[in-house]
Specification:
- The chain is built from nine helices and 15 strands.
- By secondary structure, it is of the alpha+beta class.
- The strands form three sheets. A seven-stranded mixed sheet has the order 1-2-3-4-5-6-7. Strands 8-15-14-13-12 form a five-stranded antiparallel sheet.
Length: 415
């Protein structure tokens, strides 16, 4: 039997609708009138909305069910939220520990639950996986997934597959006045494309407005990890690669080792290593010509097998003032790319046999291209007994360098 994909099925539906409308106009050479024309016009309008795929009308009963469910779920977590440290900012951010406590409460509902924390493992993931496996076989079904956000609120994501298309009914709720649940929105959208990868990522692209309705591209892509990472991979991901990323430095997206370290962007890398060491963002006072040499070199040498002389040679260094140049990343020295927003994820850890560990790192991109491994690299790391570590080298596998945009050094390097 020939397999027909979702876009082909939609085209067939459209053809049937057009033939139906034309047939209604000419039945026995007699044109339809009055109520028939009104019915045809309404059917045409409804089809146009469905074909558009976004801002779809939501059945009132279904909408109220989603809202009531959200409020009930929020009230179950209310005690945890009220006891949580929310800081002094007007923009509340709860800790990963608080989000995990909330996840444990919702886990008892026997439904899939994730948090917005990096590398969050999904509770009851098998429920979500079963729904996707059935959808891959064109079997209708639905599933509700809860996501706990950093502000302590939730998103209720109900995925429905009708045998041809998948739809998402999304509801978002936050804490309002007097810590009462407040609905932000309820939306209903058709999913244009979706896939469940072998690595356990559910990637989907929602239907969104397109040109000429909008002047700039709207990204409807999302990636959700379904299969949990191992605890070791989660811990090492947070510790060694999360704060580096692929934006503003090139440690994870270039080939290098101890014999070839000239190409690393040390001036760009400094702020990321600073945050890894001190747990806070680097803030340059601007009252001097740059970062003092000893301060800069000590931090770089703590994380890389390099000498102060080599850093002076390969970084942008002001010998007169004995400082290293630094600039904040911005539109004048960085062009945003889809790849740059990727999340580095350690998916495998193995012993290199030389006292080092090799981390297999995937670049997971959830914008536009929706790819669970834009590139895969082997990052060699030396872990010490005092919990410190050094990066010893990086190798991009499978000719993946062609997928990496040309790196833009933050500060123009001297010849």
């Amino acid at each position: 039997m020939e397999i027909i994909d979702m876009s082909t099925k939609r085209k067939l539906k459209k053809m049937v609708s057009v033939l139906f409308i034309l047939g209604c106009f000419f039945i026995g050479n007699t044109k339809c009138k009055g109520a028939d024309l009104e019915y045809i016009s309404q059917e045409t309008a409804n089809y146009a909305v469905q074909e558009r795929g976004y801002d779809l009308p939501v059945d009132e009963v279904v909408k109220e069910e989603a809202i009531e469910d959200c409020k009930n779920v929020m009230n179950q977590m209310k005690a945890i939220y009220q006891k949580a440290d929310k800081g002094t900012s007007s923009n509340v951010v709860v800790s990963e520990t608080v989000m995990e406590e909330m996840q444990e409460v919702l886990k008892e509902k026997n439904v899939p639950v994730i948090t917005s924390a990096p590398y969050s493992n999904m509770a009851n993931y098998s429920k979500m996986e079963e729904f996707l496996f059935r959808a891959e076989q064109d079997l209708p079904g639905d599933i509700v997934l809860y996501r706990i956000n950093r502000d302590g609120g939730i998103e209720r994501l109900k995925f429905n597959y009708d045998g041809t298309d998948m739809y998402l009914l999304a509801a978002k709720v936050v804490w309002g006045m007097n810590d009462n649940p407040s609905i932000v929105y309820v939306s209903y959208t058709r999913i244009e494309e979706w896939k469940y990868t072998e690595k356990g990522w559910f990637g989907y692209t929602l239907c969104v407005p397109k040109y000429p309705e909008v002047s700039e591209a709207v990204d409807g892509s999302s990636m959700i990890r379904i299969k949990p990472l191992s605890d070791e991979c989660r811990e090492v991901s947070k510790r060694c690669v999360y704060l580096l990323g692929y934006q503003g430095n090139n440690l994870l997206c270039s080939d290098w080792d101890r014999s070839d370290m000239e190409g690393l962007d040390y001036n760009g890398l400094y702020e990321y290593l600073y945050r890894m060491k001190y747990g806070e963002r680097y803030e340059f006072s601007g009252n001097s010509s740059g970062i003092p040499a000893e301060e800069f070199e000590n931090l770089i040498m703590e994380f890389l097998p390099i000498t102060a002389e080599q850093i002076k040679k390969w970084a942008v260094f002001d010998s007169e003032h004995q400082t290293y140049d630094w600039e904040r990343l911005g539109c004048l020295n960085y062009s945003l790319t889809h790849f740059g927003t990727s999340l580095p994820e350690v998916v495998e850890i193995r012993d290199s046999g030389e006292g080092n560990s090799v981390l297999v790192v995937d670049a997971v991109c959830d914008t536009f291209i929706c790819n669970d491994a834009v590139i895969t690299s082997e990052l060699t790391v030396k872990f010490n007994d005092d919990k410190s570590f050094k990066y010893m080298g990086n190798k991009i596998l499978n000719n993946g360098t062609k997928e990496v945009p040309k790196y833009q050094y933050r500060i123009k390097r001297k010849n």
